[in-house]
Design goal:
The structure holds two protein chains of two kinds. Chain A contains 14 helices and 27 strands. Chain B has a domain of 33 residues. Chain B is built from three helices and no strands. The longest helix of chain B has 19 residues. Classes of the chains: A alpha+beta, B mainly alpha. Bound molecules: flavin-adenine dinucleotide. The site of flavin-adenine dinucleotide has 34 residues of chain A, from helix 2, strand 9 and helix 9.
Amino acid sequence: MLNTYDFPEFDYVQSDEQKSGQTVRHTVVIVGAGPIGLTAALDFAAQGLKVVVLDDNNTVSVGSRAVCYAKRPLEIWDRLGVGERMVEKGINWKLGRVFLRDQEVYTFDLLPEDGHKIPAFINLQQYFLEEYMVEACEQNPLIDLRWKHKVVSLHQFDDYAEMVVETPDGVFTLEADWLLACDGANSDIRRMVGAEFTGQFFQDRFLIADIVMKADFPTERWFWFDPNFHRGQSALLHKQSDDIWRLDFQLGWDADPEVEKRPENIIPRVKAMIGDDVEFELEWASVYQFACRRVDQFRHGRVLFAGDAAHQVSPFGARGANTGVQDIDNLSWKLAAVVRGEAPLALLDTYHAERAFAADDNLLNSTRSTDFITPKNGASKRLRNAVLSLAESNEFARPLVNSGRLSMPTPYLDSALNTADEGAWTGRMNPGTCASDAPVTVNGQSGWLLEQLTGGFVLLALGVDVEPVDAGAFTPKVVSLGKDFEDTEGLVSERYDAADGAVYLIRPDQHIAARWRGFDAESVKAAIAKATAGAIQ
Amino acid sequence: MSLKLTPNIESPDDFYEVLTDAQRDMTDEEANDMNARLIFVLANQIGNFEDLKQAVAIAK
Ligand SMILES: Cc1cc2nc3c(=O)[nH]c(=O)nc-3n(C[C@H](O)[C@H](O)[C@H](O)COP(=O)(O)OP(=O)(O)OC[C@H]3O[C@@H](n4cnc5c(N)ncnc54)[C@H](O)[C@@H]3O)c2cc1C
């Protein structure tokens, strides 16, 4: 299978340290070069950290797996220099339709407002995503990417971790001040540190197939409950790049994965969905069972967890890779500050606080969608069917239809790093929220607000005079409306409730730390101290 | 007619979860009985006879 994509084979190179037998202590070692480990390598390097990445394989994700990437991870990848390529190659979409049998019952628009650099969602095969990031890693002198390096054991000490790594040349020992485990849902590292990974398994099976076809179905997400072509189950159709389409058939718990995976059984199902006369080729197929689980602590001593190693969700809502990338966005500036001795360990513990909170939000949403799609018992099936049958002709029931609530960033509303608002504000930019993009003009050229909010903490002055604030390593860059950029379309002012003037303190991961109506250097300093867990006085 | 037919349930996903969680460990018959009781609780909140008649017609 896979006629449209040639899997790259990356070279295994024996490392100097294995050759010489001299154990080396690295600052940061990332285990796993999936989407999250690769994002971490790029982001840590962007923070100036040297990283070693170990992966037990030597290619990209086999089969397409993830398809949909949301705006926020794409913004992060854009900051890391790989986002534009993804958006260019990917399929841009924002409309989803839900059908009951062949009746449309519900439509959603993911980005009802204009004025964002990055689209609401793109669809792109996971192997392209990984390939682009591997290329970017290979060009980065701070990143040492090592294929066919499998971590086989781990031992933790007070201030470092020691691991035994197996390569085609045998085993060797490697040490790391910090180890980031991005080794996926079946994480070996998680088992090695004895972390708990608990949650819920769903008693259902899904056939996921990617097919190549030239068809003029619109680039929308189509989800069917109980379709005429696949009675009693659900189904999904979604376009990817290069004329590949993702098909998803719910099979029920009693289906035999081995039998269902055979092309002679898949092809009739596909034909029933897309029509007998549409030509297609089967590219790749697999049968999945889904689970929603989370690790107990995102930090175990010197070992940090991110991505599927930290949380596994069902794919309804496209949350897996999307939320994993945001783990890295949250972690990288904190880890860099702790490594450089600029911030206390307490800052790193807020990684768990904020991202476990986000993971729980994702797990909750994925669990609810999965519960709706695969009801647990007769009673919930009856309620589900009642909602669907009402939704056909009654608008009021449509918001209850749940075929996946698509990934949005979880605001850290209760985070200890936030400074509470004083006075009244309107709009969405509450402390703990991810900063919204908006079109701006910089030196007469059109640009985007988020592109200005990079390189550490930022003090965003909107119609208020501010002065530089000295906060040591965390001294914010001042970005002023009218000086550094123009709000040509007025959308910055609108989205940031700044008609009467506003000053925002924005974290390195582009989340709002604090905001005020006027400027006061002492308040800004206090907010930076808070947002860095007391790194400055 | 004053029965609301546009979306009006506050946090629909939360409500749906409360409902399915309540019935998670129930047999079909127990769940049916609970649904019937729930109808009367909600009907009492609506109160108005014309509205209730219309609601019955929609559900039928
Ligand atoms: C059918 C399906 C559809 C999906 N759709 C979406 C979607 O639309 N959007 C979305 O965001 N997500 C989606 N996901 C989820 C997404 O694929 C995962 O969340 C994502 O791959 C997680 O990335 P990761 O880097 O954490 O782990 P992985 O991709 O699992 O990578 C882990 C890496 O670690 C390596 N490794 C493992 N053990 C070791 C070891 N001991 N030593 C060294 N290396 C090791 C592995 O070889 C692998 O390269 C989907 C998943 C599936 C299955």
